[in-house]
Design a protein that fits this description.
12 strands, alpha/beta, binds nicotinamide-adenine-dinucleotide, globular, single chain, binds thymidine-5'-diphosphate, 3-stranded mixed beta sheet
């Protein structure tokens, strides 16, 4: 690998991944970050990186749905590896309006695959790695796990669009022999997480003593993974995983939402010098999300046994790192909330 195209590198996981590869691996080649800069894309996530690695890190503002833009960038940098993070990623937004999800997640992935198929027709040593989610597997009851072999059963427009893109990626492997790999990961958390998602939303609302909206009975379960551990898993799969395979990645760390929100209240009280239960009065049970998946839980034995991956931090450590990051980076959040994100929140959430 000499020239890796990261799509969606200005988002939460993409920016953490770029930082991880440049700072913590022995990769010596270039990284090209192709991002459309939607409401969720923030080039400031990588300001330090773009200065420190100005000869190896390049940013291109472009849309994965635009064939010519992608093709020009692939040729310009002689790309040999694509890692596709670019997506519309928020389930609630997919319920309010699925169109962008269909366009970017399905058509955009198709478009990237088409450019790769054309440019890499006779080329060895190339790879298309697709970043996906455990949400494609649907919803679990009280027991059981998602395995790589679990049949897809997506329930939200978001997960349906991701499932669709996964199927397209696999179809290009079987039909055109495009070298592909996939990873399906559980819920991530950590620095640069967009503050519409559960953990950063709760941290910021606690800080500002605003209501903490818990959907339904709060007993939905998610399996949380620190974002840098997702990055290390992707790097292992890209460099050592088998072509044509998919790998589950997870935290082995299941929490009910209400249990997690209570814990965040306690940790924030610790950092902000309040009594342990001070912030719990802010918890506000609200109308449930339509089609709200009850439980996600990943079995990640395959990546552990085959590639030797493991999580590097436990949830308590990862959450403390995350809380400290948000307390130290309040300007980052304020800037986001004053722009397009805030307009969207005002428009859509008033309706509920
Ligand atoms: P994010 O919303 O924070 O970032 C998405 C990025 O993609 C943004 O920078 C955005 O500008 C860019 N983008 C969107 N549409 C684009 C387009 N048409 N062309 C180019 N760029 C575009 O998302 P995230 O949480 O970082 O998720 C990244 C990937 O990981 C997604 O594919 C998501 O499905 C997957 N994933 C996320 C989680 C999670 O917990 N967040 C878990 C598993 C898998
Ligand atoms: P989210 O961060 O949106 O991730 P996903 O839906 O992809 O799992 O939500 C995580 C869980 O938290 C999910 O069960 C929905 C719930 N949730 C709330 O209860 N309140 C909120 O304000 C949000 C954003 C999520």
């Amino acid at each position: 690998m000499k020239s890796i195209l990261i799509t969606g590198g200005c988002g939460f996981i993409g920016s953490n991944f770029i930082r991880y590869v440049l700072e913590k691996t022995n990769y010596k080649g270039n990284i090209i970050n192709l991002d459309k800069l939607t409401y969720a894309g923030n080039p400031k996530n990588l300001t330090d990186i773009s200065k420190k690695y100005e000869n190896r890190y390049f940013f291109e503002k472009a849309d994965i749905c635009n064939f010519q833009q992608v093709k020009d960038i692939m040729i310009k940098y002689d790309i040999d590896t694509i890692i596709n993070f670019a997506a519309e990623s928020h389930v609630d937004r997919s319920i309010f309006g699925p169109k962008d999800f269909i366009e970017t997640n399905i058509f955009g992935t198709f478009n990237l695959l088409e450019v790769a198929r054309e440019l890499w027709k006779d080329r060895d040593g190339v790879l298309f790695h697709h970043i996906s989610t455990d949400e494609v597997f649907g919803s679990l009851g009280d027991t059981g796990y998602f395995y790589e072999t679990t049949p897809y059963d997506p329930r939200s427009p978001y997960s349906a669009s991701k499932a669709s893109s996964d199927h397209l990626v696999n179809s290009y492997y079987h039909t055109y022999h495009l070298p592909v790999k996939l990873s399906n990961c559980s819920n991530n958390y950590g620095p640069y997480h967009f503050p519409e998602k559960l953990i950063p939303l709760m941290i910021m609302n606690i800080l500002n003593e605003k209501p903490l909206p818990v959907y339904g009975d709060g007993k939905n379960v998610r399996d949380w993974l620190f974002v840098e551990d997702h990055a290390s898993a992707i790097w292992l799969i890209v460099t050592k995983g088998r072509v044509g395979e998919s790998y589950n990645v997870g935290g082995e760390n299941e929490w009910e939402n209400i249990q997690l929100v209570n814990y965040l209240c306690e940790r924030m009280a610790f950092y902000l010098g309040k009594e342990k239960d001070y912030y719990k009065k802010l918890i506000n049970f609200v109308k449930d999300r339509p089609g709200h998946d009850r439980r996600y839980a990943i079995n990640c034995d395959k990546i552990k046994n085959e590639l030797g991956w493991k999580q590097s931090v436990n949830f308590e450590q990862g959450l403390d790192l995350t809380i400290k990051w948000y307390l130290d980076n309040q300007e980052w959040v304020k800037e986001i909330q004053s722009g397009e994100y805030k307009n969207w929140i005002d428009k859509n959430y008033q309706k509920r």
